[in-house]
């Protein structure tokens, strides 16, 4: 199976394998006009409509028993504007293709997440992000959007055109319409020097504010059951380019990070009692390294081990306390956690339902390998995250509802009012949106 979601016998499944749906029909439009026709036809037939990218969400945000729109023919770059420094790209374009095409043109996005398998519209609609002191999520780099709304009209929005739609639709959850094209801000390609090194949990948490302040992009992974973390600092560099040598890269990124890690997960599943020992070995497997390369080769890495994930954004000043509480909960619970916890940051942005909307944020992501029971661990983690007014990633496992979101998003009502205007009949509704946005 590819990295994308799969459809067998009419059943759609997501990448993590924890969500499935049986749509009444699937449509793969080759143009915006064909997409408009599909939305209008669904309305005539009284069917709901959802667009799905590569299925990298762990929530049922894209699941439907109505019409499933697959955007894989709506791909490619429409236009590069070197005066405005923007690129307009079709919604179904995978981030990987965008990054590689931009690099060939001597351009790059400013920041990106650590996976690039997703489509541009799927990644932005759910609020996918990397880590950054000043540079924010992928959606925060959007300068314009084209959207097919419930009545079949095509709406363009930007800061100047339909600004109230633009404020919300950059992270629109698929609730406001189907995104057909996105215009991103780009900049001349640059080099990043990555410095990866192990650091103790106590050191990284006590020095977190300095590490954040001193680096353009700082993140770390903590291995539960150990006092060890692996830190990564990415900063712009004058060069020269010094990529990870191919063999070393294969050994560290494929063999250790994916191959050996996969075997460790299998052993842990078969014998959970071995997990703390495996964690101690895993935490020491990756040694320090420094390399300099173009952005997408530094920010992103392959993820071959399938997992299920929960991630919450907490106020940045609360991250250390939240992490310490999580460590205590894992130690006291008897839970066996074989997957590292990932910690990243983002500056406040102005997108209505962005997890960083209006506040500097830190992200804590917990994972379990696909197929293992994750509920007890995620429930314990979620209890801690919500006590700090955490906001869950829209595409990752959580149990929150509209009432909760109304409390943690000051502009929540602004989004739901816009949805009432753009989709009064709830053409783009599904069970997930009913829960998170209200009926």
User: Per DSSP, what share of the residues sits in E-state strands of 2 or more residues?
Assistant: 15-25%
Secondary structure class reads: alpha+beta
| Spatial strand arrangement across the major sheet | 17-14-16-15-19-20-18-21
Average of the residue pLDDT scores: 92
The gyration radius over C-alpha positions equals 21 Å
Oligomer: single chain
List segments where confidence is low: pLDDT < 50 over at least 5 consecutive residues.
Answer: none
The profile of the biggest β sheet is: 8 strands, antiparallel
Number of contiguous helices: 14
Distance between the amino and carboxyl termini = 36 Å
Task: Report the count of strand segments.
Answer: 21
Describe this structure in words.
- The protein is of the alpha+beta class and 439 residues long.
- It contains 14 helices and 21 strands.
- The protein has helices spanning 32-44, 95-104, 120-125, 163-169, 201-206, 208-214, 246-270, 275-285, 295-299, 319-333, 375-387, 402-408, 412-422, 431-437, and strands at 6-8, 11-13, 20-21, 25-27, 49-51, 67-69, 77-81, 86-90, 107-108, 142-148, 154-158, 178-185, 187-188, 191-200, 217-222, 228-237, 289-293, 307-315, 341-346, 361-369, 391-392.
- The strands form five sheets. It has an eight-stranded antiparallel beta sheet with strand order 17-14-16-15-19-20-18-21, with helices on both faces. It has a five-stranded antiparallel beta sheet with strand order 7-8-12-10-11. Strands 1-2-3 form a three-stranded antiparallel beta sheet, with no helix packed on it.
- α7 packs antiparallel against α8 (275-285) and α10 (319-333) packs antiparallel against α11.
- The longest helix is centred in the middle third of the chain and has 25 residues, at 246-270.
- It is globular.
- The protein starts with 5 loop residues before the first strand and ends with a helix.
């Amino acid at each position: 199976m590819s990295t994308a979601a799969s459809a067998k016998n009419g059943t759609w499944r997501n990448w993590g394998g924890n969500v499935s749906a049986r749509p009444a029909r699937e449509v793969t439009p080759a143009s915006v006009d064909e997409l408009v026709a599909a939305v209008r036809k669904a309305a005539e037939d009284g069917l709901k409509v959802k667009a799905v990218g590569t299925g990298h969400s762990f929530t049922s945000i894209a699941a439907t028993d109505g019409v499933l729109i697959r955007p894989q023919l709506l791909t490619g770059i429409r236009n590069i504007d070197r005066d405005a420094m923007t690129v307009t790209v079709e919604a179904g374009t995978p981030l990987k293709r965008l990054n590689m095409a931009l690099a060939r043109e001597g351009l790059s996005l400013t920041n990106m997440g650590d996976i690039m398998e997703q489509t541009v519209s799927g990644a932005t609609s759910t609020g996918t992000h990397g880590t950054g002191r000043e540079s924010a999520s992928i959606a925060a780099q959007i300068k314009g959007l084209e959207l097919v709304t419930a009545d079949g009209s095509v709406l363009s929005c930007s800061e100047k055109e339909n600004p109230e739609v633009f404020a919300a639709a950059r992270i629109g959850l698929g609730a406001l319409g189907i995104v057909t094209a996105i215009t991103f801000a780009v900049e001349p390609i640059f080099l990043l020097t990555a410095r990866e090194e192990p650091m103790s949990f106590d050191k990284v948490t006590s020095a977190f504010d300095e590490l954040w302040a001193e680096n353009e992009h700082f993140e770390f992974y903590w291995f539960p059951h150990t006092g060890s973390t692996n830190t990564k600092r990415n900063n712009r560099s004058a060069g020269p380019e010094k990529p990870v040598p191919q063999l070393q890269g294969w050994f560290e990124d494929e063999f250790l990070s994916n191959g050996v890690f996969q075997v460790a997960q299998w052993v842990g599943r078969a014998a959970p009692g071995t997990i703390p020992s495996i964690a101690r070995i895993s935490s020491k497997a990756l040694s320090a390294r420094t390399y300099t390369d173009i952005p997408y080769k530094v920010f992103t890495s392959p993820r071959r081990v399938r997992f299920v994930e929960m991630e919450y954004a907490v106020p940045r000043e609360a991250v250390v306390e939240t992490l310490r509480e999580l460590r205590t909960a894992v130690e006291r619970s008897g839970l066996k956690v074989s997957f590292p916890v990932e910690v990243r940051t983002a500056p406040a942005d102005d997108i209505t339902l962005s997890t960083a909307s209006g506040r500097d944020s830190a992200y804590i992501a917990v994972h379990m390998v696909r197929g293992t029971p994750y509920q007890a661990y995620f429930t314990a983690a979620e209890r801690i995250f919500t006590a700090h007014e955490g906001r869950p990633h829209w595409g990752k496992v959580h149990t929150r509802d509209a009432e909760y979101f109304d409390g943690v998003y000051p502009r929540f009502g602004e989004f739901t009012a816009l949805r009432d205007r753009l989709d009064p009949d709830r053409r783009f509704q599904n069970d997930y949106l009913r829960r998170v946005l209200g009926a």
